[in-house]
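## Example pair
The file below holds two records. Each record gives the amino-acid sequence first, followed by its structure token line.
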Amino acid sequence: MSAKAPHEKIASLIRENRLEAHVELHPFFQQYTDLIAQLKASHVCVLPSVREGFGISALEALACGLPVVTVDHPANAICDLISDENGFLSSLSADDLAEKIRDALMHHEKMREACIAAAADYDWNHIAKESAAYYQSVIAKTRSDNPRKS
């Protein structure tokens, strides 16, 4: 007996738990606009990983107005993006994760603006302006600390 591919395992769990009406599985989106359209048509983004880097997928979800549910774990950098206004942090318990997903589904509409606002801090134009201002402050400080001798 061969092992099931991850996609097949998830599909099987969806069927076993009679969740077909509530959960959709999609293949890789070839077009980024298709991914964004799917996010905008959703109500919540669930990323139950304990180990994530920066969390660009969470940021994309927030920018689309989706509250994010993720696992509260020291190796999960997504936690740094989440506040009470834009998402939920879960323990590793399946029951707690389910409760946080329910909460996100119940409150997603009123959390939408806070989600979008949280993502705005990571807009490239905003980051570029902050970076330029920081570099200018370093240059100014360097000049004041080391005035030219004439």
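Second record, same layout:
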Amino acid sequence: MSILQDVGLDRYDRDARLKPALFAVLPIVMVALAWAPRLWTEKTGIVALLTAFGVTFLLSRAARVSGRNVEKRLFDNGASLPSVTLLRWQDSAIDPHTKQRYHTFLSRCGHALPSTEEEKADPAGADSRYRSASRWLLEQTRDREKFSLLREENIDYGFRRNLLGLKPAALMIALIALTINGAVFWAQTTWHTEDWVTFLILGFAILCAVSAWIALVKPQFVRDAATSYAIRLLAHCDHL
């Protein structure tokens, strides 16, 4: 971790961007370690590690871009971000009494939020005001130490968002890893018991990873984290 900090990766970079990339390349790394252990001598291991780190670092940058694209698609380019929808009077996720406190606080801070009637009359205009207020609130909560719980929610959201962004690449990498695993196994001149064990365990592990990507990493997986983050963000209206 200290090495990653030395090259400029803070905790958000490591947890929200680098970890999704590591999960994506893990099948290839598993296959290389299992079928080519001799390559992992002291010298070649360092080269391989640096290469893997470089690829993973590039993937982490790609995760950032693809994650933002996912966010735009999921939330209509910012129009339906949870921090906006939760402030709407018509949304029932936050009880009306708590929502009234948030509106009152934000209005006192210079963000005149719409009434129920104004929201119904001009939904787009109301959302624009909600968006402005939530952006202002986000800027007021940048202090990592003071708002550590909010930061945790932000990291969790970024992690899930970037996982979804990398999902196509991760599934392709897993398919390549399965192909390599099968090709190396069938290329053996004599099949020993340990070869069968390696082939089956690797295949099963990669298929489990594929199943996890397909079953868990879905839009709702990201929306849940985004909503939790937005609820935590708005809750600071009671503490600022």
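Notes on the second record: The radius of gyration is 23 Å. The longest helix spans residues 148-186.
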